[in-house]
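User: I want to check something. If I give you two sequences, will you return the structure for each one separately, not as a complex?

Assistant: Yes, each is folded on its own. Here is the first sequence with its structure:
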Amino acid sequence: MQRIGLIAGNGQFPLIFARAARDLGYCLVAVAHRGETDSALEAEVDELTWIQVGELGRLIEVFRRAGVKEAVFVGGIRKEGLLDHFAPDDRGLAFLSRLPHFGDDVLLRGLAEELEGEGIRVLPSTLFLDSLLTPAGELTDIQPAAEQWEDIRLGLRVAKAIGEWDIGQTVVVKNRIVLAVEAIEGTDATIARAGRRGAVVVKVSKPQQDLRFDLPAVGPRTIDVCARAGVVALALEAGKTLMLEKDRLIAAANAAGIAVVGVVP
């Protein structure tokens, strides 16, 4: 069986990826992060090793010992996690000392270079799962009103601008006023913090997005957060945003009266 290394972060995406890979007959050697990765992953992979966030040397050693030549980064690491349970080993500290700053893009590209320097090729996280990428067009029975489309267009411009600075991927807009931009707190907290009745949420990839990792993702939980915050429309960048549990997401949005659209900036 062909082996793939799975570097697992948080959320449902590692579980979805693992099931798809196993269905196709791949052997999965996973490295999971304490305090981040769902323990249910253990039942979905052939081998699993738990590490602390930052244990780069141990991660590489696990893959080398298992004969892994290809790997994927699936699921994110909460920025708060870098503060709460960050415990780099010697290899991790040496890696961090060479970085100009600790932005997501710099960290992830640097990690990919470290792995590829060890003969481990980093593959796209959407391997086997292109069907999860958001299609263009109106995806729910409910459609955005004309004034909400104005907010969406403004949100797209602002979201791409903050993405260029590696700040976040999500903005909340109402009446052409930006209510919030995503930073360290993550998408759900941004929506909850800024939610106003009639607001729209826009989520995009960064202009410099490396499609191998850190793709923006939403799921049914995102719809729940939007509903509680009074959001009426969710706009996702088509082809570059993952829709996890898409059928459940769309059904939840229809039930909550929230328009979901795939847009091309």
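And separately, the second sequence with its own structure:
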Amino acid sequence: MLNNPFFCRADALLRAEADALLGRIAASPYLHGLFADGKMMGVLVARAADGTQVVLHAFSGTARGLWHVEGFVPPIFEFSREQVDALSKEHSQQLQQWLFAKYLVRNGRGEVRSVLDIFSARGLVPPAGTGDCAAPKLLQYALAHNLEPLRIGEFWYGASPIHEVRRQGAFYPACTGKCGPLLGFMLQGLDVEPNPLESDAHWQIDEPLVLFEDASLIVADKPAGMLAVPGRGTGRICLQQWLEEHCGGPVLACHRLDMDTSGVMVFARDVTSQAALQRQFEGREVSKAYLARLCPCPPDGRAVGLHVGDKGKIVLPLAPDWDDRPRQKVDAEGGRAAATGYEVLRVLPDGCIDVRLIPYTGRTHQLRVHCAHPLGLGRPILGDRLYGGISDDCGSDRLMLHASMLSLRHPLTGERLSFSSDFRPSEEIS
């Protein structure tokens, strides 16, 4: 059964093949020169009709302008950049449609469809670069040559782009904007594992804890893996619904935590209290602190040297990565201001580092990006699948990020209240 390309945990076979490719590139001045600036690579392990194992390699886009590099699968469709550049801008939309109509891909049922038709069927327009990522290249080659895909993965080689967070050797899930619809078609007819992140079986979810309750508000400790509020298209119970069932009466959301993040949350019991609490969040009157465990220093050694007691402030503006939501990227021109304070609490024998994080702003994935980005702490949070936090040296089945403290004014009395929580024993790294 083929592993799910939208889940980036690599097994021993995939990791070994990826390491072999990384080593081959690093040992070759020619290949290293092609990819040193940073490139998403891909590997696919397949079975031929005679039962032999075949390993395929690919890279996303081009390598310093080259579509073909010996030892890597060819592009799905190749065209002359000179011809494209020569066309006037007024024909750009027509050109894009022409290009995507030429990108013909297969699926496991033997069906062939253009990228344009695949996206149009969903009412979407293909983003630029669709079809040039490593994963669809690998699948297209395998299906066109009657190979049975067994394992597939995408990982980074080289420097991290200044606007993104990429870590050499780290596996990443297939992107949602370009590859979501495309791979959704190509995987049809193949025996593919379900995405573990979309199954409750992946999460060993603890019971939420109610830390405080009165007629105006409820404060609870959310476990990792539980949605904070109802999610579209999911049948999972969220913390808000759980509180309604266990505490009775209305429970109204005032803020959110990512599903992967655990820790302290506050809910209102009535609309008046909800409005008062939301005003505090909007006015940045609520104090918050998080605990995070960071990955060991990556092999390239470019992470910031951190020692117990170190303190500082990270200021990096953030914007959505529209081609790969929900990922965020650093954007100095169009991003929204984002600032995070940090303090190093502990350095562990395995190289992991525990830090306290203080968000001065509340941008999506702010703490995760500020930790992982080379201009931040240079170390992703352990267990962070989006930003390179899956470590072979010290694994974690969850994102090691915990909302440990929340301080606010009571919406009725005005009294300052503070609530705290630590990682629960079942959430610690084994």
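Because they were folded independently, the notes below concern the second chain alone. The two ends are 29 Å apart (CA to CA). Residues 12-197 form one domain.
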